[in-house]
Predict the structure of Alpha-L-glutamate ligase-related protein ATP-grasp domain-containing protein.
Amino acid sequence: MYIHRCIQREVWSKEALGDRIIMRVALPFVPFILAVLVAVFTAINGRAIKKRTGKGLIRQIQEQIELAIRFAILPPWYYIFELHDDDKKLHAGEYLNRLETKGGLYRFLRDNNGGLPIPAERSTGSIKDKGRFRARCRAHGITTAPVFFNVAQEKITAVDWGLPELPALPELPERDLFIKPVHGQGGKKATRWDYLGSGQFRRNDGEVATGSQVLERLRHASRHAAFLVQPRLVSHCEIADLANGTLSTVRVMTCRNEKGEFEVTNAAFRMARNKLVVVDNFHAGGIAANVDISTGTLGRGTRGAWGATGDGWYEQHSETGAQIQGRKLPCWFELVELVQYAHGAAFSDQVVIGWDVALLDSGPCIMEANKAPDLDIIQRVEGVPLGNQRLGKLLAFNLMRTVEAQHAPAAGARKSADSSLGTQTEKP
């Protein structure tokens, strides 16, 4: 509850004037937007939930409106968090929703370094740019995915080979490749090219091209966006049956604690549901399972693409049939050590980070870091809200320290003024 109140009183009140004006202009349209969302997501999920739980459509609609008014939980999350379950609905106020976290909480903590002194050099820019992120990790000895080429503004630069900008089209390595935007999110515009031999590559949609054609297309596309050309990495042999032909990653949350250290609070293992998909993104229809951070053991798998109930929960992979629940992830404790070290060594000015980590035969490898991590996946797979769990308590602690640090100068100024006034009016 402290987080909810503080976001309204401290975070949103300090938003830029333009953002506050937009919020006020949008207020009259909220009832209409809510009505549309209720209609859409009840149409998508309502009958399946009625069949599964016996709760009628009218009751589901009433509950969606009630939760939106009381806790700003919009209809998609009514289904994502399964708040049609009466026991879960009792704890609706403990959920951390993206309107609060992505809408100001993360930025407030980041901009003020959680109430601690702000360093001269910030790491935020390195997180947003995949090339700079990789360079920062390498400088601190943190394992990240290798990169063959950076393609930007029609220029191709060899990265891991330490070569300058290449004047002509180089040769692509004769191996499977993965290409992604430098500033992309959620796996958008990422492609996989499988090497066929004789200089030929096949894209994940079936198109075949030579290495020169692939690079030429990239160079043309780089007028508008930069790209990284990387080797296609393969999941650890012990979880290959869960990966379904796509690199699986673990979303791991780390947060600054009361001692100023960084600890893992939650984790979710992600798997591709369809072999034709090149990423394991949860909101793109993938499967995710909770990870017991003390053991690395998986819970049941589930989907959660914007409220689509899918086929609920399952103990085996829906396509491969591989066992999910009860599986132990390889190299788990090495992964925990890696992300905690990475947060403290290279990104200590970030209060909270959501890491995407691949488990390879060679060990854990950090793929990306997220400065404003989505908590939907964690709260969905765990089946409980985070507000009063360890992550919620740490966010509240850092938020409280930030607010106190901001109010301290004002309190000091008032105390000084009161002291001065007392001296002037004091009788002899």
